[in-house]
Design goal:
The protein is 34% helix and 20% strand. It is of the alpha/beta class and 192 residues long.
Length: 192
């Protein structure tokens, strides 16, 4: 299983690193693609100045080698929403029911603006919710088929475990949760 993460300057550090860590603990390979409109040689800096050094250009990502697209939230959502290459990648994943899209905090609003939340249950950072044509649920993570959404930085571990559960099954997710001493697995993740 491989996950493609999208990142640009001002991503939410916790949502990127904590989610990626949970997925790696489950054995999911992660690759980060630079999603700046104008790619640059310099490192990608998060909201709290965490650095992403290792990444590939989004245009060079071989999408068919990935099972999952992960979009962390943070202020970079504005640039991601304006980037036609990001829209192309999201549409590519959305058109393939065997692939997953996971977005947290502000990032689900990109999906909503593209019409991808219509008819789905979802969550996002509560103050950013709009009428996206779906059903907003205020939970840390919501899984609706191949769409996985999270509501903010505090949800990172739950969001990551919800992704693991959706892609690799409840047994693997519970194993990872136990190794991290995440005691609310049944309530937070199985209820997602």
């Amino acid at each position: 299983m491989r996950a493609l993460f999208l990142a640009s300057d001002n991503f939410e550090d916790m949502e990127y690193y904590a989610t990626r860590d949970v997925l790696r603990r489950a054995g999911i390979e992660t690759v980060t693609a630079e999603a700046r409109i104008q790619p640059a040689e310099r490192i990608i800096l998060g909201r709290e100045k965490a650095e992403i050094v290792e990444r590939i250009p989004l245009a060079q990502a071989q999408l068919d080698t990935f099972d999952l697209l992960v979009i962390p939230g943070g202020g970079h959502w504005v640039e991601l929403a304006k980037n036609p290459e990001v829209a192309r990648v999201i549409q590519w994943f959305a058109a393939r029911p065997e692939k997953y899209i996971a977005a947290i905090c502000a990032a689900p609003t990109i999906l909503g603006a593209m019409g991808l939340l219509k008819g789905h249950r979802y969550t996002c950072f509560p103050s950013m919710n709009r009428d996206f044509g779906g059903t907003f649920i205020q939970r840390y993570a919501v899984v609706d088929g191949h769409l996985i959404t999270g509501d903010g930085p505090a949800a990172c571990v739950t969001f990551g475990l919800a992704i693991v559960r959706a892609t690799l099954g409840a047994e693997v997710a519970r194993k990872v949760a136990n190794e991290m001493y995440f005691e609310r697995f049944d309530e937070e993740v199985l209820g997602a």
